């Protein structure tokens, strides 16, 4: 399996095996078991062994806006709370964190330059190609070679469950007419495959097929372990994706 369960003091979380082999990053995707709004920052800090003050997140607005933290940024703490849905850094011990409850967590690692990124990809951000924009930013700001990138797609709502309007489906087909299989019709209903959409955007941006890994875990199908905004009819609870260099 591409993604594995971990349990620490009754706190359930997930890791991608391919990232653990690199030896210079920590990461996780949380669950609903052992996590709540009050203890999320504490749990991330404890599991990743990084001070809470080093955990950076944005006010997510379902955009493709990306914030960068590098040596030119004197106070990275000012990033927290800014609007956006993508984070990139090459600074060790800074945890990038995004919030999810069906939207796609997308992790990026430049294995040569040691740069990491994290994106929140709902249908709007994915429609506006946040994955492709993340890779372009790696290239333009850090001189990355897309073939050196590892990209993983974490637990999120799958094509089995993500029903959308027919009009929205047509908009995706109009914009991504060369992407086969991102829209499906079943029983007179339209479904969007966010996993395949982001996979194809990532591949089109030059990342090697073997370096794109999907968890294939549907949050809506697995509400015993995950929060699902769609399945739970607007839950305010969230999981988090987190990653840092060390």
The global form is globular
Low-confidence stretches: none
CATH-assigned fold name: CNF1/YfiH-like putative cysteine hydrolases
How many domains comprise the coordinates?
Answer: 1
**Which CATH architecture is right?**
4-Layer Sandwich
Q: What is Rg?
A: 17 Å
Strand order of the largest sheet: 1-2-3-15-7-4
Order of helices and strands: EEHEHEEEEEEHHEEHEEHEE
Q: Give average pLDDT, whole number.
A: 97
Proportion of helical residues: 10-25%
Q: Assign the CATH class.
A: Alpha Beta
Q: Determine the CATH superfamily.
A: CNF1/YfiH-like putative cysteine hydrolases
Class based on secondary structure composition and strand pairing: alpha+beta
Total count of strands: 15
The number of helical segments is 6
Kindly report how far apart the N and C termini lie: 25 Å
Strand content: 25-35%
How is the main sheet built? 6 strands, mixed
Describe it:
- By secondary structure, the protein is of the alpha+beta class.
- The chain contains 6 helices and 15 strands.
- The protein has helices at 17-20, 40-48, 123-127, 130-142, 166-175, 194-204, and strands spanning 3-8, 11-16, 25-30, 55-56, 66-69, 86-89, 95-100, 104-110, 115-121, 149-153, 163-164, 183-186, 189-192, 212-214, 239-245.
- The longest helix is centred in the middle third of the chain and has 13 residues, at 130-142.
- The protein is globular and about 50 Å long.
């Amino acid at each position: 399996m591409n993604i594995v369960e971990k349990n620490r003091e009754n706190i359930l979380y997930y890791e991608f095996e391919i990232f653990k082999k690199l030896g210079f990053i920590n990461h996780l995707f949380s669950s609903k078991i052992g996590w709540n709004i009050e203890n999320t920052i504490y749990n991330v800090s404890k599991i990743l062994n990084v001070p809470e003050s080093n955990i950076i997140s944005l006010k997510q607005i379902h955009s493709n806006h990306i914030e960068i933290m590098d040596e030119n940024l004197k106070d990275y703490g000012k990033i927290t709370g800014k609007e956006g849905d993508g984070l990139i850094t090459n600074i060790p011990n800074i945890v990038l964190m995004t919030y999810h409850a069906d939207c796609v967590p997308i992790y990026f690692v430049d294995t040569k330059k040691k740069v990491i990124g994290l994106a929140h990809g709902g249908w709007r951000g994915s429609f506006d190609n946040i994955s492709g924009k993340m890779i372009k930013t790696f290239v333009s700001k850090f001189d990355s070679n897309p073939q050196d990138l590892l990209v993983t797609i974490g637990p999120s709502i799958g094509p089995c469950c993500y029903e959308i309007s027919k009009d929205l489906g047509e908009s995706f087909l109009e914009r991504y007419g060369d992407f086969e299989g991102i829209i499906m019709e079943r029983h007179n209903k339209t479904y969007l495959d966010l996993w395949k959409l982001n996979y194809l955007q990532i591949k089109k941006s030059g990342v090697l097929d073997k370096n794109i890994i999907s968890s294939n875990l549907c949050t809506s199908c697995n509400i015993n372990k995950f929060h699902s905004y769609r399945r739970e009819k607007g839950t305010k609870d969230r999981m988090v994706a987190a990653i840092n260099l060390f």
